[in-house]
Amino acid sequence: MIEAIETLLRHWGEQLAQNGHGGGLPSTMGTIVEFAGCAPRGGVYGAKLLVAGAGPDYAAAEVNQVLYAIERLEGGSALVRLAYARYRNEPRLTIAEQVDALELGRGDAGRRAYYRQVGVLHERLQAGLLERQGKLAVMRRESRRDGDRVRRASLKHADAAHRGRGLELKSDRSSGDSAP
Fold first, then answer.
1. Cis peptide before 91, with omega less than 30 degrees from 0?
2. Which of 23, 37, 70, 178 is the most buried (most CB within 10 A)?
3. Is 43 left (phi over 0), alpha (psi -120 to 50) or beta?
4. What are the distances in angstroms from CA 18 to CA 12, 21, 50?
5. DSSP 38-84
6. What's this model's pTM, rounded to 2 decimal places?
7. Which candidate, 139, 131, 104, 134, places its Cα nearest to that of 118?
8. According to the model, what pLDDT value does residue 177 have?
9. Where are the domains of the chain?
């Protein structure tokens, strides 16, 4: 069991319990479908969804995405069921109840299988999170490179357009008044 992943999964479970999966703010069409026409003018008070803070935070959303990816792998659906049983259920189930619900066996054999599955879940989740962070770092690096290229091109274009007042432009750039 990886302690940091355990803490992260507990946070994920709390976020889903408090805020749900997120991603679904109300729309006009959704209101029409929900009420089979226009929403009633009276009798319905308050919003069903939170506007600020709707859905889980960034860390919990990342865990959710990795769990979706794990679910698509062979044997992944059992690991996702384990994650929901262990971290998401309210009230929390005992380990024996989780072993029974997940049909991992009876007695000590079931308990060993349960902890083995928890270890596999933690390892796959950690690998998935690291992979996502690696991809994000590459995207940021490429974005920074593209931004630098566009900035250089715009400065070159500005130099060409303002040859007559080139000294002004260069003094502005050296003073730090304009973007690099």
1. yes
2. 70
3. left
4. 10, 9, 11
5. SPPSSS--S-SS-STT-S--HHHHHHHHHHHHHHHSTTHHHHHHHHI
6. 0.65
7. 104
8. 54
9. 3-21+54-126
